[in-house]
TrEMBL record:
Record flagged with keyword Oxidoreductase: no
Family listed: Belongs to the COG8 family.
GO cellular component, one term: Golgi transport complex
Protein name: Conserved oligomeric Golgi complex subunit 8
Native species: Erysiphe pulchra
Keyword Lipid metabolism: no
Subcellular location: Golgi apparatus membrane
Length: 437
């Protein structure tokens, strides 16, 4: 297909000899559409326009383009300079990119080999020490709040035990401590292989032993009341349920009686100065031979025995009353239980000859033994009839052996006292019978 020549081509050929070959840019070739469009524009002008109008138009266009170039250089000279700088460095940068790309392409086989080796070593289906250690560290990081809470349990437990010395407040704190201990034991049953849980459980056991000691000391306190004793025993039942098994009274009953007996003995030991005076008086009376002096003496012994009887009567009544309120059943249920126990004892073929006595009965006999031993030692030194006829001493004389009065040669005194107290006992029984009816 032949090339179509435009009207501007001959004109372009006519103008070529006038071009400066050294300064003509390649953009002024005949193939440039702008050059062709301008030459076509020139062919459409008259000769007068070419000589007069067109030079002015070209001058105006040149001035406009020059002003635009000035404005562009003023506004964007920094960007143009930076672009020129980057363009001058583009060749160097491209060569570096090519070198880096070549090095990366050469290292890809090594990277692939290392990735395969890593996947083989740290596969989840295979055992790896490092992977297991990382899993453990990640698990600890996720559960750091829970672990911190668990580690704070022993300190909370000790704070609950040692927070207050008041009876009511300490009981509430003991209940909180028991709840914390139950929570720790439950955690130990859920996670028996955890070293942290075992350590916390060990510290909890030490705190519970401290709490047990505090509760036992509280049972020996001088300000113990029934409500406080019931709360302390309730805490001990939760703390050591094995002590409350077996009989209804359990080992806690024996513990309670032992603590209160220790308190009673401490109170009686406080009468040591009076007892020393009574001993001195007893040694003095043993050396006397005059019967008159013996009957008119015994004031120090009387003072000691009065205080001794007062403390013993008050504390023994309080101990037995609290014990019955805490450990023994109500009267109707207790009666039925005694009947069942009696039937079992009677029907049992391999039982012993006598049933075992209860803790309270044994304790009461022990109190009677201590009381009788002390009175048998000191009461004979009270020789004045007015003192011996008082209600306290006369009642005690009635339950003691007849030898106390027989040694002094006055057998009628003991018989008269026995008769008087039998009359009082009969009146008391009649009053109780009339009230029940």
């Amino acid at each position: 297909m032949a090339t179509v020549r435009s009207i501007a081509d001959p004109l372009y050929e006519l103008l070529v000899p006038y071009f400066d070959s050294s300064s003509v840019p390649k953009s002024l070739s005949s193939n440039n559409p702008l050059v062709g469009s301008y030459l076509n524009h020139l062919t459409g002008l008259s000769l007068s326009s070419l000589t007069s109008v067109e030079p002015q138009s070209l001058s105006q266009s040149k001035s406009s383009v020059f002003l635009s170039l000035q404005d562009l250089s003023k506004r964007s000279h920094n960007s143009i300079i930076s672009s020129c700088t980057h363009l001058s460095n583009l060749g160097t940068e491209l060569s570096l990119i090519v070198e880096s790309t070549t090095a990366l392409r050469e290292s890809l086989p090594q990277l692939d080999e290392a990735a395969i080796q890593f996947s083989e070593n740290y596969n989840t289906r295979s055992e790896n020490v490092d992977l297991e250690r990382r899993r453990t560290a990640l698990l600890l990081y996720r559960n750091v709040d829970r672990i911190s809470s668990i580690l704070e349990l022993p300190s909370l437990l000790n704070s609950a035990i040692q927070s207050s010395n008041q009876a009511a407040a300490s009981t509430l704190n003991y209940a909180s401590a028991l709840d914390l201990n139950a929570h720790i034991r439950r955690l130990n049953s859920l996670f028996p292989k955890s070293g942290i849980i075992k350590s916390v459980e060990k510290q909890s056991g030490e705190a519970m032993r401290t709490m047990t000691s505090n509760l036992i000391l509280s049972l020996k306190s001088n300000s113990l009341k029934l409500a406080g004793a019931m709360r302390f025993i309730s805490c001990l039942r939760r703390l050591s349920p094995e002590l409350d098994s077996g009989s209804k009274e359990g080992a806690l009953g024996s513990l309670f009686l032992t603590c209160r007996l220790a308190y009673l003995q401490n109170m009686l030991e406080a009468l040591e100065p009076l007892r020393e005076l009574a001993d001195q008086e007893k040694n003095f009376l043993d050396k006397e031979t005059s019967t008159k002096n013996k009957w008119e003496s015994g004031q120090q012994t009387e003072r000691y025995l009065k205080r001794y009887i007062e403390i013993f009567r008050e504390q023994s009544f309080a101990i037995i009353s609290m014990y019955r309120s805490i450990f023994l059943l109500p009267s109707n249920i207790e009666t039925e239980t005694r009947k069942e126990l009696r039937n079992k004892i009677e029907t049992a073929s391999d039982s012993s000859l006598q049933p075992k006595s209860s803790v309270l009965a044994t304790f009461s006999l022990h109190l009677v033994y201590i009381f009788s031993e002390t009175l048998g030692l000191y009461l004979p030194n009270v020789r004045e009839k007015s003192s011996r006829d008082r209600s306290d001493f006369s009642m005690i004389l009635s339950i003691l052996d007849q030898k106390i009065s027989g040694d002094d040669g006055n057998d009628d005194e003991w018989a008269e006292i026995i008769k008087k107290h039998r009359m009082l006992a009969g009146r008391l029984e009649s009053m109780v019978g009339s009230r029940e009816s």
